């Protein structure tokens, strides 16, 4: 397993693999890897001859008052995890390698990003689309793996790949949770022990919403109200949003009459966490 810091080295390696007729999977990450990332790597290793994991805290997807500086980083830990899970290469560039002086081209999207996280993080998806496009161009993978934990991101990337005729498959992977239910996230490390307990309200409200859907509730406002009430009862929690949207367009819907995504963003203290559930299995159409 190699750690590579330059675009040229990645290109050289992946070109060699392609010459040998090998397939390549890409798992884009911001590092500080946990079992959520590992599940993406496992899937890629299973489905491709070679797997590249990118490990890059992308400055472009952070807003001016967000946590770019404090975002956790530990490349040695990441390298050990990647090796253990059988991937072949980590691409770990410096920001200057990805964004040289004079960088001025962006990939932006006019749909899907005007809801959910796009509202509270206005520059986020432009940064994500731009860096993911660059990674696709650098690695030229056959398949790229993204977590459903970031459900809007997954929808945006799928849409972008289709719009721009990108020649690869975008594959969504299930949310991996801690044993008590909290969705695994690099940002969980920001939580104090007291906040960690309070953060459970995210998954609890997700499970509540999911249960209501299972029991036949179709009125979105009823589901949202029940989830909001549960979150509001936790003193350390502050709701950014609790919404139900069409899982393709990301626009809010009043009634569950099509495949939908219920997504939440909640501040626990200063840490903003997200979670979600899909009302139907979207993989049937995605794969
Ligand atoms: P990040 O490093 O947080 O940008 O995440 C990199 C990739 O891992 C994204 O596609 C995320 O959706 C995915 N991911 C992060 N956390 C989880 C999780 N708990 N379960 C599944 N996928 C995850």
User: What is the helix content?
Assistant: 25-40%
Kindly name the structural category: alpha/beta
| Strand arrangement in the largest pleated sheet | 1-4-3-2-5-6
The major pleated sheet works out as: 6 strands, parallel
The CATH topology of the largest domain is Rossmann fold
Number of helices: 11
List the ligand species: adenosine monophosphate
**Poorly predicted segments:** none
Radius of gyration: 19 Å
By oligomeric state, this entry counts as: single chain
What's the CATH superfamily of the largest domain, by name? HUPs
List keywords for this structure.
287 residues, three-stranded antiparallel sheet, six-stranded parallel sheet, 2 domains, binds adenosine monophosphate, alpha/beta, Rossmann fold
How does this model look, in words?
- This protein has 287 residues and is an alpha/beta fold.
- 39% of the residues lie in helices and 19% in strands.
- The chain has 11 helices and 9 strands.
- The protein has helices at residues 7-19, 35-47, 75-84, 95-98, 117-120, 124-139, 151-163, 193-198, 200-214, 220-232, 283-286, and strands at 2-4, 24-29, 50-55, 89-91, 143-147, 169-173, 237-246, 260-268, 271-278.
- Helix 2 links the parallel strand 2 (24-29) and strand 3.
- The two termini are 29 Å apart.
- The mean pLDDT is 97.
- Bound molecules: adenosine monophosphate (AMP).
- Adenosine monophosphate is lined by residues 29-30, 36-37, 39-40, 146-147, 149-150, 173, 175-176, 183-186.
